[in-house]
Specification:
Blueprint (H helix, E strand, L loop, with lengths): L1 H17 L14 E4 L2 E4 L11 H18 L5 H12 L3 E2 L3 E3 L2 E7 L7 E5 L7 E4 L10 E8 L5 E8 L5 E7 L5 E9 L5 E3 L2 E6 L17 E6 L8 E4 L8 E6 L5 E7 L6 E6 L8 E4 L6 E7 L2 E6 L7 E6 L9 E4 L5 E8 L2 E8 L2 E7 L5 E5 L10 E2 L6 E8 L2 E9 L4 E6 L10 E9 L5 E9 L10 E4 L14 H7 L4 E5 L9 H5 L7 H16 L8 E6 L1 H12 L6 E5 L18 H4 L6 H10 L13 E7 L8 H13 L6 E6 L10 H19 L4
Parallel strand pairs: 34-35, 34-36, 36-37, 37-38, 38-39
Antiparallel strand pairs: 1-2, 3-5, 4-5, 5-6, 6-7, 8-9, 9-10, 10-11, 12-13, 13-14, 14-15, 16-17, 17-18, 18-19, 20-21, 21-22, 22-23, 24-25, 25-26, 26-27, 28-29, 29-30, 30-31, 32-33, 33-35
Helix pairs in contact: 3-4, 3-11
Length: 701
């Protein structure tokens, strides 16, 4: 009887959900028009760009009330929340890193909002808590965003982020006494922290005007040196560029403390580079690379020689070395030449050069001698991803992580003397990885280009065109989407879901040429690749357009918005998350100007404007169009892709949509672009998304 009562209640909830009549908040329209090369473009929702106005706050409140009133009536909501909580409740560790003779690592017991930093003298020794970020806020919204241990092991310099913002603050803790120093560095952004002597280098912007912290353009990045025990106002300015407001600069110190390396960038691709010999007290920064045409990143030094990874004359990257006395390109020595696969990263570890190559979007690990001669392969457990290799130049032991779609983050210890890997840690998770199948298939895009796609599902799947399927992609900024594990996806897998990841052009999976093939005037290639992925899944009978959902975040949110407008008939559900939706004005907010290398700008030329205007999600919504069920996501502290993008996009989508399916926006509070999000918020977010997905794709638990 109890079971019958429960089923009856679920049926009533489902019927009430179907019959929900959604009354969207009325969004006022203003008379705002811009002229782009003779084309008048209306922007009636520009007032939503003001993140400090009472009107915007009221709009946000009204939208969330409508959204959560709908979500709370969806069936299986509490079952999904319970299962997500169970799945996430397992201990997990980070890759250990060695500093001052001790091993540091992060651990999360399972449901802790933030992972805790520990230290131990020996690998198998009793760990001691160093810093618990969960104690920095009651709701877990203060996250640790970076840690640096001084060479003598006495101090820990750490960064925190509040509510997911890109703005960071720096603090210093005495590891011997546990005392927190008075030092407090503010307005740090897009910065590492690298200790040297009795202080550290960092990057920051000038203090912004009150009220503009989360939206105004970030300009005039600077590198400073802070001496421990002093006030921020006394910090020494190391580098600035007064002539170019829209450039960023980053500082690092070589492992041997010999060189200060300053990298400058104008966009997300390509950088200039200057180096200073710190042994020469009167020395200046020496320009090594003065253009922004290629990537050039120093990965280590040996004596007077600096080793750098670059795609200069090598779209799939090569490793070179140079001497600061003669740093010109004509004097570079090629150590590891460009190969068939992309050289993703390299490091000087254990007396060797340890490399990570990417082959069809999965990791291959190889070891070379300092002269570039190949030594041996490091065998990995399967088709997956290595994200981190941790080790010192003179230490014969290193650590690396390994993950795949059905493999949670395992950690391996590698011994250079035996050339063998041993399992250091394997998490115990509440599912059986052997129940799931991971494969890679290739399909043809619109122009015939072969695109790889990972597909994950339960073993024994019937290819009958009826499987609920979620297609995910990114397609931009030279970022590669490789196999990864997420407990949040398991709730979908377990209930018959198929998860597909398409490696679109615009990413870095096949090097710089693959990246450039999805940028600026060629951006439509990215959308064509995604649409072709959806059509492939349908043609191969994994799913149908009535069972297909799509998801992407940030640049991937732009992707979802664009393909949703171009092919609304192809999908049933869409999740455009923290997306770049107004392609004509994106460069006017925070760090948006740095994305012009991928996108171009609307004021560059008439041709560039027409290209952007032709796919901009905000501008290409069709009046009286019939759209899939949409649950867009953004957050009030997102100062990377400001929430105004999603606000404007959803206001217009709600106005123009003539379909019967809901188009809703979920606006998180005390959250940002995604980094540092506490576990409780992750569970809340995926409870909402999976409830929405399960209902509209007809998944029953």
């Amino acid at each position: 009887m109890k079971k019958l009562a429960f089923l009856f209640l679920a049926f009533i909830l489902m019927i009430s959900c179907i019959n929900q009549k959604i009354e969207y908040p009325v969004t006022k329209k203003a008379d705002v028009t811009d002229d782009y090369f003779g084309t008048a473009v209306e922007d009636p929702y520009r007032w939503l760009e003001d993140d400090n106005s009472a009107e915007t706050a009221e709009w946000v409140k009204a939208q969330n009330e409508v959204t959560f009133a709908y979500l709370e009536k969806l069936p299986y909501r509490e079952e999904i929340r319970k299962r997500l909580t169970e799945l996430m409740d397992y201990p997990r560790y980070s890759t250990p890193f060695k500093e001052a003779g001790k091993y540091y690592f992060f651990k999360n017991n399972g449901l802790q909002n933030q992972s805790v930093l520990y230290v131990t003298d020996q690998l198998n020794g009793e760990p001691v808590e160093v810093l618990d970020p969960n104690k920095l806020s009651e709701d877990g919204t203060v996250a640790l965003s970076g840690v640096e241990i001084t060479e003598d092991g006495k101090y820990m310099i750490y960064k925190i982020s509040r509510s997911g913002s890109d703005w960071n603050e720096i603090f210093i803790k005495n590891l011997e006494t546990g005392e927190l120093l008075k030092d407090h560095i503010e307005w740090v952004k897009f910065s590492g922290v690298d200790s040297y002597d009795d202080g550290f280098f960092y990057s920051s912007y000038d203090k912004p005007e009150a009220g503009s912290e989360l939206s105004n353009a970030n300009e005039y990045h600077k590198v400073y040196y802070h001496k421990l025990g002093t006030a921020q106002a006394e910090d020494q300015l190391i580098y600035e560029d007064k002539e170019h407001a829209k450039r960023n600069c980053y500082a690092g110190v070589s492992e041997d403390n010999r060189f200060l390396i300053v990298s400058m960038s104008e966009t997300t691709s390509g950088n200039a580079l200057s180096v200073k010999d710190l042994n020469d007290k009167k020395g200046e920064l020496v320009p090594v690379i003065t253009t922004f045409d290629n990537d050039f990143n120093v990965i280590g030094t040996i004596g007077d020689e600096l080793f750098a990874l670059t795609n200069c004359d090598a779209p799939k990257y090569k490793l070179v070395k140079f001497n600061l006395k003669n740093p010109g390109k004509e004097n570079w020595t090629e150590i590891i030449s460009e190969k068939e696969n992309v050289l993703q990263s390299a490091g000087l570890i254990g007396g060797k050069i340890v490399t990570l190559y990417m082959k069809d979007a999965r990791s291959v690990m190889q070891v070379y001698n300092y002269d570039g001669a190949f030594d041996y392969d490091v065998e990995l457990p399967g088709i997956g991803t290595v994200n981190t290799i941790s080790g010192k130049m003179d230490d014969p032991i290193a650590f690396y992580d390994y993950t795949s779609f059905n493999t949670p983050g395992e950690i391996y210890k590698f011994d250079f003397t035996t050339q063998k890997s041993t399992l250091h840690y394997r998490p115990e998770v509440k599912f059986n990885p052997d129940d799931f199948e991971v494969k890679q298939e290739f399909y043809a895009s619109k122009d015939g280009t072969k695109i790889p796609m990972f597909i994950v599902h339960k073993k024994g799947l019937a290819l009958n065109g009826k499987n609920p399927t979620l297609l995910y992609a990114y397609g931009g900024f030279n970022i590669s989407i490789t196999p990864s594990f997420s407990t949040t996806r398991l709730a979908f897998f377990e209930n018959g879901g198929v998860y597909a990841v398409a490696n679109l052009r615009g990413g870095g999976e096949y090097g710089e040429e693959w990246h450039l093939a999805g940028t600026k005037m060629k951006k439509q290639n990215v959308f064509d690749d995604f649409i072709a992925a959806a059509e492939y899944l349908i043609s191969q009978k994994y799913t149908s357009n009535n069972k297909l959902a799509i998801m992407g975040g940030s640049n991937g949110g732009l992707l979802i918005g664009a393909v949703l407008n171009q092919r609304p008939d192809l999908f049933k559900v869409a999740f455009p998350l923290v997306g770049v939706m107004d392609m004509l004005r994106y460069h006017k907010f925070t760090i948006g100007w740095a994305w012009a290398g991928d996108y171009g700008k609307s004021d560059d030329s008439k041709e560039m404007f027409e290209c952007l205007y032709g796919y901009s999600p905000y501008h290409t919504i069709i009046k009286d169009g019939k759209y899939p069920a949409v649950l867009a996501g953004t957050a009030d502290h997102d100062d990377r892709v400001v929430p105004a993008h999603t606000f404007k996009y959803m206001a217009r989508l709600q106005e123009y949509n003539a379909g019967k399916l809901p188009v809703l926006v979920r606006i998180d509070v005390k959250a940002g672009h995604g980094a540092g999000k506490p576990t409780t918020k992750v569970i809340d977010e995926y409870t909402d998304m999976w409830s929405f997905l399960f209902y509209h794709l007809g998944i029953k638990m």
